[in-house]
Write a structure and sequence with these properties.
With 179 residues, this protein is mainly α. It contains eight helices and no strands. It has one domain: Rna Polymerase Sigma Factor, Chain: A (Orthogonal Bundle), CATH 1.10.1740.10. Helix 1 crosses helix 2, helix 2 packs antiparallel against helix 3 and helix 2 packs across helix 4.
Amino acid sequence: MPPPSADASAEDSRTVAAAQQGDRAAFGQLYARYGRMVHGILLARVPRADVADLVQDVFVRAMERLASLREPAAFGGWLAAIARHAATDHTRRDRPTAPLPDQVAAPPVADRLEALAILDIVRTLPEAYRETLVLRFVEGLTGPEIAASTGLTEGSVRVNLHRGMKLLRERLERKGPRE
């Protein structure tokens, strides 16, 4: 996807305004446009198993509060804040978990284990780096798309990606060679 143009931003604002008037199809368009961003923000903060349900919760909260959004052009940043708060609320809850019995759990593939190990390391990085790295490498968003979706500047996204990658490389090197 190319970086959002002024026309695309205006279209987003019109879509948000329509959704504020109760247009469910317009809200569906917002879900399609911002769903990957919300998924990435949550994936950077909460266990993978909880992300899909939380994405739905974030959009339900957004729909319930949409009338309170004064500036339709700020929708992406506003939605990102809702996602961050939902992740924080989720991690505050003390929910006991139990592992699956061995006979139920399928043996994971080596590549999947490596990807999950890297995601665990990404989750130890500072929040700004963690979020932009997950949005870039897991959700596949470009730097300009991350900026447009989250309300960050493109320069901030570039810096966060660069510094985050540097920290990630350092931590992966400290971890040692893969077996």
